[in-house]
Every structure is written in structure tokens, then in C-alpha cells.
Amino acid sequence: MQRFTKKIVDMMKSEGLFETQGGPIILSQIENEYGPMEYEIGAPGRAYTEWAAKMAVGLGTGVPWVMCKQDDAPDPIINTCNGFYCDYFSPNKAYKPKMWTEAWTGWFTEFGGAVPHRPAEDLAFSVARFIQKGGSFINYYMYHGGTNFGRTAGGPFIATSYDYDAPLDEFGLLRQPKWGHLKDLHRAIKLCEPALVSGDPTVTPLGNYEEAHVFHSKSGACAAFLANYNPRSYAKVSFRNMHYNLPPWSISILPDCKNTVYNTARLGAQSATMKMTPVSGRFGWQSYNEETASYDDSSFTAVGLLEQINTTRDVSDYLWYSTDVKIGYNEGFLKSGRYPVLTVLSAGHALHVFINGRLSGTAYGSLENPKLTFSQGVKLRAGVNTIALLSIAVGLPNVGPHFETWNAGVLGPVSLNGLNEGRRDLSWQKWSYKVGLKGEALSLHSLSGSSSVEWVEGSLMARGQPLTWYKATFNAPGGNGPLALDMGSMGKGQIWINGQNVGRHWPAYKATGGCGDCNYAGTYSEKKCLSNCGEPSQRWYHVPRSWLSPTGNLLVVFEELGGNPAGISLVEREIGSVCADIYEWQPTLMNYEMQASGKVNKPLRPKAHLWCAPGQKISSIKFASFGTPEGVCGSYREGSCHAHKSYDAFERSCIGMNSCSVTVAPEIFGGDPCPSVMKKLSVEAICS
């Protein structure tokens, strides 16, 4: 570890990348969330922490070192916080800064799980709450979503997409309103900087759930954070002889202790819905059937069942377990037709069972319970039968103590029930093993390897055939928008483009969980605000344009279950519609900055700003309502109060434009439809 750490530090030094060399690196981290492991291990774990800290400091980076989730980090290491919320955190010494090294912007998607979403309002609330309680540093995890290409997923059942609901999505596009809402938050915090860096805040209760954190500087600067921690109710508070309305679960930022420029629950940024648009015609497919447990010189036999990862050494997701079973001609099931039940217990993660070369069934686990049991009747014949079990690992151990106790593969018992003898245990008879697939050994995913076998033309392909390789060629579509493969018609396997592994696909694993309405207010967890229940956990798979040539790109898909390759398409991710939700008299940063500069001397009405992507224009207004509209972007509906001219201003100002803005005021929409009610504008425009 010391050699590796020194190597990385020396590489950074050689490029002049540390801040003390004039570079951009202001912080270094050694270890990651080792604290819980140290607690489990005891004294040896503590000794390791001390050694790692001393070793890191000795490398002389010139910038501070941190340890995440390490409460006993030795000086001068700074212990830091990771989590959805870190306002409660304090470093282990008063002279160390309060730092949040992983502010979780969302959560990862797992195969079989619903897609997590963390509302922008709650993320902004958590950050503002951290700052108001003396926080000095925030790093978002993730700020840019990513892709687990190939077999690089960071743990069992973690999907190929690592989008993480991040402000910049997996494809590099802005996720609105999260990106814009955080940008506005950062601007608001920056306005408070002179007071924030001058000392600790004074905390004043404003009610049962409300309080003010006030920062002062010796030069007279003043900044205040007004918080309402109630997740259900608005609060009207009095602060410095002025009244402020605070939405539930929100914080208002006052950079001059007077004017609100930002509230975490009020979105000034636009929202956007994304769409996947097909950009190519149908692929011309050819197929090649993978042989069931085809054995060669690399195969071997052993008595009993072997653990998978120790056997494959992770050179492949796949391991074949095969054994022969002799069935006597006098077995009763041969006459009754009541086939014996094969029961296979596996440590995970997925399993396909073949009897005499034919798929008999499939079983798979989950992230919470990777172990699986296959138990069903199997069609055996008199004489010798071959039972071939294809065990699939979907990721490696990733977090927690005692990795040595984690395992995968068929560990048994394996038994047949319903024979004349009753139950026959197959666990300790001789098994044959083969690591990987024949197609992998032949490199069918590569241009040279794919030319080494005879492929069946599309018109002659068997439909729904398990263990099948498919290939097609295609030309790169025009433009520069991000691309993906729509794999919704397929089952499970892997994808390659020009020899590069796009990742594991598993659309057959439908998402489960508690999907429903999402309320930003209240403590967030990864089980809150889920979507996509009943649909594939991941349907679209990111294809970097940098992997493509203008013509003749090779697409190879290995399909375990069957699927229908005719349904695969190449799509482009783009903005489908943009939305705005603006309350009347909603505070804005622009308003404050213009007043502070003396350009205006009275509050300005807020504006709804809409803009499509470059190359797009607003083609229609799908929805507009000034009053009490309900719903969210993509599914708005009118409330009990609605201004009858809500559409007019947007149709005049926005149709045919790439961007537009409309002032949010009653006179713009034909008058005040409900004078005694707090109103907002909701609008959705289609981008084309």
C-alpha cells in the first residue's frame, strides 16, 4: 500500500498538481470509511490507522490529509463526514475544520431495485444546514454520474448505470432542477462569505421548529440562515423586526441579515424531462449459439462444489458446474410423469440450470439477499443425464468487514428428490468445471474474434434461444448528442461495441420497491422517492461517442435468457420538455444583486426562465397555469385557482425560441384569479 500511495503522490508532484506547487489539488485522502472496520478488528485496526496516517503525512504533499468516517483520525489528519446529512458532525478536535467529503446527491441503482431520486430541495436543505452549523467544506458524491463499463460495478447487483441522480447525469447533461438549484445555492452562500468566515454563528430560537443562525464580521458584515425544520407546516417567523415565511423543511439565506435571496424549497431553476430518441434503423443481426458446458484443456474436475470467485479469479462472470446423473429404467417417475425435483442452493448471484443441454430454469438473488435456491421438476431420462449449472457472479465484495467470508457460486447442497430411493445428494460426487464461456475464449466480442466462427444470418436465427451471441454492424449517427442502447427487449448478459465492454445488461430483472409520490420534506433515505417499479431497473446503456468510428461499428451482445434482438435500438438522449415553478414574489439572486448595486430601488417580480438545448426550439406550450397548479414537471394539472390567460404570454414570447422569460405577475396572466391565496406559476414547454 505504501508503494502504491507513494507512486500516486509522486505522479501528482511530477506534474505540479498540488496547490503548494501552483496546482489544483487542495486536499488528499488516505483510506475510505475505515472507521467501522477498525472497530470490528480492534487493536490491529487501530494500529493500521496510525500507520496509514503517519505514512501519508510523510509523503509531503503540502496539502492537508483527510480520513472519511474515521472518528479517531490522528493529528494532523482531519476526520470528515460522509452521508445524506452531516450538520450533526463535529471533527475530533476543535481546531480542525468541519468538512463534508461525500454529500450524497442521490443513490446507486441496483439490478432488481427501483431507481432512487433525491429531491433538489432536500439536497439544498442539507447543504445549507451544514453551512449554517459551521461547515467549511463540501464535496458532492456524485456531482457527475457515471457508467460501470464492463464488469467494473462497485459491488454485487450494482447496475451498469451509476447515474446516482447527480447534478450532471450519466451522459454529461444537466439534471434540472438539481444542477441549477445547487448553483443558485452556491451563489447565495458566496454572498455571505465575509460574515461566514469571520466566526461561529449565534443561534436564536424562532419557534418550536424554527431558528436563526447569524454570522457577524468585525467589519460589520452580517448574514443569516433562517430554518424551518418542520416537514409538514409553513412557518411565519419574526427576525430583526421583519416577518419571513418559511416553507416546510427549508432554510432561507439572508446575506445582509435582511433580504432573502434564496430558499432551499423554492426552485428558481427550470426543470427538464429527458427523452430517448431512436437515431438508427433496425440492426441486421447474426447469431452464434454458445455451447452448453463445452469442455476443453482448461476444464478440470473435483469432488464436491467449489466457491466461484476463488475458482474464476474474476476473469469471467461465468462458471460452469457439470455432473452426470444415472437414472435407472425402473424409476417410477418415468411411468408416472412426475419428474424429480432438482434443488440447488447457491451463494449467488444468478443461476441457469441446463438438463441434457436444454434450459430448465433460472434463479437469482438480490443485493439484500444474494443467496438463491433453484427448486423445480426437471425432465430426466433413463440412462446418463448431464446436469450443467451456469453460475453467474454480478459484482465483487465491496464494503464491510471480513471479505474472506463473502462467497459466490453453487456451494450446495445439490439434490434430486422424487426418485425411488427418495433423495439423492449430488453435492459430493465428481463435478466438472469450466471458467468462462466458449465465446469469451474465442473473443467473439472483438473484430478479429467475431470473424473466427460461422454466424447464422438473421432470417435463420432461432427465436428466444438462451446462451446466444448476436452481432451487427452500424454507422455512427450524426450530431454530438449522447447515445445509448435501448435493451428493453433483452433478458440478461453483456454488450460490446468495437471490442469495448459497455457493461452487464439485465432488463429481465424488474424493479421492486415502494414507488409513489415524492415529497421533498422530511429526512431522506435511499428508500424514499423511488421510481420505475415494475419496469427494468436499467433499460438504456450508455455508449460513448468516442468509441465509435464513422462507419462499420461492431455491436456484439451475449444473451443468457433469450430476448428479442430485433427490439434493440440506438437512441440519443435529449431534452423533451422544460418546466418552471415560480411563486409570486419569490426571492431571486438577480433581484438582490440589482438592488445592492443600486440599479433598482424596489423589489422586482420574479421571472420564469425556460431554455432548450442548443439546436432545439420551443415548439409548443404543453401546460401553463398561474394560480394553484398541482403536480410536477411532466404531469401538471390545474388547481382550484387558475388564471384564464396563463398560456398567452408564453405562446407569444416562447414559441420558436431557444429560450425565453416571462414575468410572474397577475397582470401578465389576465388578473389575479384568487387575491387572498399564495399563487405560483407552473409551465411546461416542449423542446424540438
Automatic annotation (TrEMBL):
- Which enzyme class? hydrolase
Listed under catalytic activity are: Hydrolysis of terminal non-reducing beta-D-galactose residues in beta-D-galactosides
**What's an example of a GO molecular-function annotation for this chain?**
carbohydrate binding
**Pfam families of this UniProt entry?**
BetaGal_gal-bd, GHD, Glyco_hydro_35, SUEL_Lectin
Q: Supply the alphabetized keyword list.
A: Glycosidase, Hydrolase, Signal
GO BP: carbohydrate metabolic process
Record-stated family:
Belongs to the glycosyl hydrolase 35 family.
GO-annotated cellular components: plant-type cell wall
- E.C. code: 3.2.1.23
- SUPFAM superfamilies in alphabetical order: (Trans)glycosidases (SSF51445), Galactose-binding domain-like (SSF49785)
Mind telling me what this protein is named? Beta-galactosidase
Instruction: Write out the coiled-coil annotation as residue ranges.
Output: none
Q: Where is the SUEL-type lectin domain?
A: 602-688
Query: Which superkingdom, per the lineage?
Result: Eukaryota
